[in-house]
Amino acid sequence: MDRFFVDKNNIDLENGTCIIEGEDVKHISKVLRCKVGEKLEICDKDNSEYVCEITDISKNQVDLNIIEKKEIKRESDLKVKLYQGLPKSTKMEFILQKLTEVGVDEIILVSTKRSVVKVDDKKEGKKLERWERIIYEAAKQSKRGKIPTLRGVLSFDEALEDMKNNDMNICPYENEKTVSIKSAIREADINNIGIFIGPEGGFEEEEIQTLQNIDSKVVSLGPRILRTETASVVASSIVLYELSDLGGNI
Ligand code: SAM
Asked: What dotted CATH number matches 3-70?
């Protein structure tokens, strides 16, 4: 069943109805060619979802009746904030899509010393819009209970300030030879965690030092060197597996 996110103010629980507006209307009527009577899965972007039946399709709106509320927990209690050292744009779609699928809560783009891409202000807005669409589509496909937030592009110092609000921060670093991610997060009793992944060229030693100065745990992801896009997904998956619901409670 196709899934769509609907703002809460478009869901009327009292009367058991909801409406879909915006870009999804065209997708429903022209691409999926849905008809009155067909069912869709509606999520309110805040962990509630409903099976609904289409009652009317017009040019700018789809009207539905709520058939049933689905009691299913799709969101991790642990909020993972992935700080992504700005990679080449060609890698962004993969990173955003996979992080959404595994259950990351927030993706924060950070320009670090070795980031080869410098998104200039003019183009940043357009790129962020396109990247948000990728997250939205991945959230629909993976049946997320909410749409991960995309923020950025932050400077390294802005990212440090943001990280200070987290219960814990880890920074995977391929030159780390003693502390593993496994040992660093074991039995951590936290509500949220920041994970900072370097860009293709990695972190400067000085950046690692600065991250340690704000109590980030510098960790190894193992003996092999992962590409930045692989490291983001692997580190998030390890954390969500070890401390939350990935691979676990179904
Ligand atoms: N210096 C790396 C190299 O030799 O190719 C480049 C950095 S790596 C491609 C990109 C990022 O992935 C790193 O900044 C780090 O955050 C993470 N990473 C990759 N492999 C890792 C490993 N084995 N342990 C910890 N972090 C790793």
From this structure: 2.40.240.20
Tell me, what DSSP letter sits at residue 131?
H
Q: Same fold for the domain at 3-70 and the one at 79-243?
A: no
* Ligand 1 center–CA 198 separation, angstroms: 7
Query: Would you say domain 79-243 falls under CATH 3.40.1190.20?
Result: no
Ligand 1 pocket (Cβ < 6 Å) reads: 172-174, 197-198, 200-203, 220-222, 224-228, 231
Q: Which tens digits make up the pLDDT trace of 121-145?
A: 667 788 889 999 999 999 999 999 9
pLDDT digits (tens, 9 = 90+) for 26-63: 999 999 999 999 999 999 999 999 999 999 999 999 99
* Pairing label, strands 106-111, 149-155: parallel
Spacing, Cα 226 to ligand 1 middle (Å): 5
Residue ID of nearest Cα to ligand 1 atom 19: 226
Whole-angstrom Cα distance, residue 58 to residue 196? 45
CB 64 within 8 A of CB 38: no
Distance from residue 201's CA to the centre of ligand 1 (Å): 8
Domain locations in the chain as residue ranges:
3-70, 79-243
